From TrEMBL:
Site note Transition state stabilizer, residues: 180, 241
Pathway: Metabolic intermediate biosynthesis; acetyl-CoA biosynthesis; acetyl-CoA from acetate: step 1/2
Catalytic residue list: 148 (proton donor/acceptor)
One of the protein's GO biological processes: acetate metabolic process
Catalyses which reaction(s): acetate + ATP = acetyl phosphate + ADP
UniProt record similarity statement: Belongs to the acetokinase family.
Cofactor(s) this protein cannot do without: Mg(2+); Mn(2+)
Higher taxonomy: Bacteria, Bacillati, Bacillota, Clostridia, Eubacteriales
Name of protein: Acetate kinase
UniProt keyword annotation of Nucleotide-binding present: yes
A Pfam family of this chain: Acetate_kinase
E.C. code: 2.7.2.1
Native source organism of the sequence: Harryflintia acetispora
Residues that, per the record, bind Mg(2+): 7, 386
GO CC annotation terms, alphabetical: cytoplasm
Length: 400
């Protein structure tokens, strides 16, 4: 069975075609600048890379080009579009309605659109992409929606509620939702698979660290708490996002700087984080280079803040779960920065964490245990694979 995995944005359409018989990626690519002009980049499993400009007025034309490049020319990996058995779509927000992945119907698409206030940048184009997909592939090709929020729906009420008047939860569904759920689910499940452990009795902290970062507490295989909240802005310092701040800072700055709500949101989401603290860059690699080579105070401070916050959450989540079995690092920074992993684990020896520095240095980008044999708590690098998780859900649901 071959599954096409789609991650749609307002002006982009990322895709992977996965052969689920051996979980092998046959091809992947990205349709960019939808609604502007259009550019497609396509890579095959045998190393071919194709890039060319093509008009993408809407997501429909992008899907048509994906079909064309998969089935013809130099980028061909299948003989006919009918070889694609199903399409799995990443969806940002499922509110409290969708606690698991689900087969897509018109009602599901309408629901996803209705959650647009909760996910204004992602839900509308993802719903539009689903409708475009139906137009191109036809109604007989099953589609499945996999929600970033669904894994976190197992959080207890005491973890997901805010201490606001309860009426706002009832009226507007204001609560912690959490994001990166597909990654957290994949990594926590993969850890259990690698180690042969049953979920019951395990206490795992998953650190998904990249330009957007979040940490989850996974107890008995289910999400118990997570750092992102009502939106992906909460929690850790990120590339351009502030992470958690005192709510009074928001109103104080709005008054002082005469900022509108939209301007404040823009500042918190796009001008803060690594970029705001360092005044240099939103890319963690630039900050590491600057602090090491130029002794740049802002870069050093941003790096220190991230490491401090990660360490703090590992400790607090261990306390919340009543113990700690393992810490798993994933995401672009988590998988590739041995320095960050080492610094985050330093000082946690009292919790039973003991790093194998040699293993840690050699683990970047690969699946490996990096804790010492004597460590009471295991530490792992587990590269995330959200596309495979989406494909697996798709196969499971359409096979029922």
């Amino acid at each position: 069975m071959k599954v096409l995995v789609i991650n749609a944005g307002s002006s982009s359409l990322k895709y992977q075609l996965i052969d689920m018989q051996n979980e092998h990626v046959l091809a992947k690519g990205n349709c960019e600048r939808i609604g502007v002009d259009g550019l497609i980049t396509h890579k095959t499993d045998d190393g071919k890379k194709i890039q060319y400009e093509v008009a993408f007025p809407t997501h429909k034309e992008a899907f048509m080009e994906v079909v064309k490049v998969l089935t013809s020319g130099e980028g061909k990996v299948i003989g006919d579009v009918k070889e694609i058995s199903a399409v799995g779509h990443r969806v940002l927000h499922g509110s409290e309605v969708y606690k698991v992945s689900t087969k897509i119907t018109e009602k599901v698409i309408e629901d996803i659109e209705s959650f647009s206030e909760l996910g204004p940048l992602h839900n509308p184009p993802q719903a539009a992409a689903m409708r475009a997909c139906v137009e191109v592939f036809g109604k007989d090709t099953p589609m499945v929606a996999v929600f970033d929020t669904s894994f976190h729906q197992t959080m207890p009420e005491k973890a997901y509620m805010y201490a606001l008047p309860y009426e706002y939860y009832e009226k507007y569904h204001i609560r912690k939702y959490g994001f990166h759920g597909t990654s957290h689910r994949y990594v926590s499940a993969r850890y259990l698979e690698i180690t042969g452990k049953r979920p019951e009795g395990t206490r795992v902290v998953v650190c998904h660290l990249g330009n957007g970062s979040s940490i989850s507490a996974v107890k008995d295989g289910k999400c118990y708490d997570t750092t992102m909240g009502f939106t992906p802005l909460d929690g850790l310092i990120m590339g351009t996002r502030s992470g958690a701040v005192d709510p009074s800072v928001v109103t104080y700055l709005m008054n002082k700087e005469h900022m509108t709500p939209d301007e404040m949101s823009d500042m918190l989401n796009k001008k803060s984080g690594f970029l705001g603290v360092s005044g240099l860059s939103s890319d963690a690699r630039d900050l590491v280079n600057a602090k090491n080579n130029d002794h740049h105070h802002g870069a050093q401070l941003a790096c220190d803040m991230l490491r401090y916050q990660i360490k703090k959450y590992i400790g607090s989540y261990a306390a919340a779960m009543g113990g700690l079995t393992a810490v798993c690092f994933t995401g672009g920074i988590g998988e590739n920065s041995s320095e960050l992993r080492e610094e985050c684990c330093e000082g946690l020896e009292f919790m039973g964490i003991e790093l194998d520095k040699t293993a840690n240095e050699s683990a970047s980008g690969s699946e490996m245990m990096i804790s010492a044999p004597s460590s009471k708590v295991q530490v792992w690098v587990v590269p995330t694979n959200e596309e495979l998780m989406i494909a697996k859900d798709t196969v499971e649901i359409i096979s029922k």
